[in-house]
Every structure is written in C-alpha cells, then in structure tokens.
Amino acid sequence: MEPILIISNLMLVGLTGTYAWLANKNIKQLQQESSYYRSVVEKQLRLTALPHLYWDLQPTSQPTNSSINSDSKPSNLTLEVFNISNVPAYDVHVSIIGAYTEEALGIATFMRTHVQPRHRKYPLQSDKVGYYGVRNAVRLSLLPTQQKIVLSLPFPVQPADVYTLVQYRELSGENYYQVCCFSAIDESGAYRANILEPSEIQTMERLHLFDVEDYALPSEERIANAPLNHKENASETYPYYLVDFIDLWNHAISSRLISDAPTAPEENVPVKATYDF
Asked: Which of 101, 95, 79 is nearest to 159 (CA)?
C-alpha cells in the first residue's frame, strides 16, 4: 500500500510541477507578447505625431538651354518633395548633388563647357572613386500636411547619380534626416532610388550646408542609434552614407557658378522656397 501512495504522491508532485511550469511559461509568453504589442503601439503613436517626407526624382519636358554641348545629354529633372504625414514639417532643408564621373565627362571639359568663364579656375577635383558634382540647397520654412514642392534641379548635363540629404524639424525643434541616392537605369533618363538611409528616420544636430568649401562634420556631435561603419576622423560619430555625402559635397561645385543650368520656376509650391546658393 505504501509504495502505491509514494508513487501516487510522486506523480501528483510531477503533475503539479509540470502544471506550474507550463503556467509560468504561458504567463511569461503573455508578458512578452504584451510588451511587444505595447512597444509597437507606442512606436506607431510616436510616428503618427511626426512629419514624414517622401521625395522622388522626375523627368520634365521643359526646354533646356540650346548652348549645351550636343554630345552631352541635357538635364531635365525635378525633385518632388511630399509631406505624406498629418503633421506639418518645419524648416525643411534639401541638399542636392548631381554626380558625374571623370570617365564619362572629364572635369576640364565640364569646366570649359558649363562653368562661367570667370569661375573656370575653381579647384574642382574628383573624389577617390572618380566622382565630382554640382551642388545646390533649398530651404523652406514650412511644408504643410499632404502638400508637395517641386524643385527644378540646376544641372547642365544629365548626372550619373543624384544624391539628396533632406533635413526637417517637427514642432519641438528636433531635426530629422534621410539620405537618398537616385541612379539612372535606362537611356530615357529614368531614375530609381537605390539608397535610402537610415531606413527609419533618425534625429541629429542640423547640418548647415551653405556655400562653403571643405565642409567638416562636427566631431563632437552624435547620431542616435547610428551604425558604427565610419571612416577617418568621423569614424566613431557618423554613419558611412552621411560621411560619403559630405565627401561628395566637398568635391562638387556650386550651381551658382554654372552658366547653362536650367532655371525653370518651381511648380506647386505651397510656401516660398529660398535657394541657399
């Protein structure tokens, strides 16, 4: 009789322990799921309170200057910047670089053909991979919700790539940014975005890219949650795509020195945009 009682008690203890373990496991799983869904909801609520911009590169049928070299394909491009959120974006700053390669269009030929005569001694050089460019920046005080601004790009020749750095603020003053690269994919001049970094908008201190030479990233600033794949003196501060953008910016010439860039007015501008240079 005693062995049966002992065995029964052991089985009861085992069943009780198994039940307790399963119950504890289910509670932990429910807590994890609850925490996950709560974080998702909090993230969605936070994102709905932030402005979100989307931009795309589009060809235009507007005429270009007939003095452009017939061997070069003229640039007929506009950048459309949309505020697709339900929150206005403030102090929007769009920095643009039209990139060329030495192999396709030598700097000497570019300077002789497309730069104003008095600026042809500008010390334009290509970067370490053979790229140089034309740079421009546009600033507008406000981009309302569900509105867009269309900007004519001041490139005298169809660029190989177009790089954009868009910065904007929300009401509290936090500055958000994203870098995008558009590359030509066919003979018609159609472009496709092949880089958009960071994939989720992040904050950083505003980069004031005015018409200055050799812009340097402030070494004391930090970007929250940025990957640590950097180089040179910014190796522990800025992500590679931002460092590369600034490097190409420093190997570009200001669009105000170009003699034959398209100058078509902006369309669908909800507020006045000002060109930094």
From this structure: 101
Q: Is-contact 79 57, C-beta < 8 A?
A: yes
CA-CA distance, 166 to 179, in Å (whole number)?
A: 7
Maximum separation of any 2 CA atoms in the chain, in Å: 112
Q: Which residues lie closer than 8 Å to 77 by C-beta, 6 or more apart?
A: 57, 58, 59, 60, 152, 153, 155, 158, 162, 189, 191
C-alpha 190/C-alpha 158 separation (Å) is 11
Cβ-count burial 227-256 (b if 16+ within 10 Å, e if not): eeebeeebeebbbbbbbbbbbbbbbbbbbe
Contact (Cβ atoms closer than 8 angstroms) between residue 254 and residue 209 = no
Sign of the alpha-carbon torsion through 69, 213, 277, 247:
positive
Could you tell me the pTM of the whole model?
0.73
Residue % of the chain over a pLDDT of 90: 36
d(CA 181, CA 161) in angstroms, rounded, equals: 7
Report how far residue 254's alpha carbon sits from residue 277's, in angstroms, rounded to the nearest whole number.
7
Q: How far apart are CA 202 and CA 217, in angstroms?
A: 17
- Evaluate the CA torsion angle 204, 180, 274, 89 in order and state its sign: negative
> 138: which residues sit within 8 A by CB, 6+ positions away?
93, 94, 96, 151, 273, 274, 275, 276
The H-or-E segment that residue 136 falls in is strand 131-143
User: How many beta carbons lie within 10 A of that of residue 276, not counting itself?
Assistant: 18
Over range 148-155, report the average pLDDT: 89
List the Cα angle 75/136/97 in 5-degree steps: 65
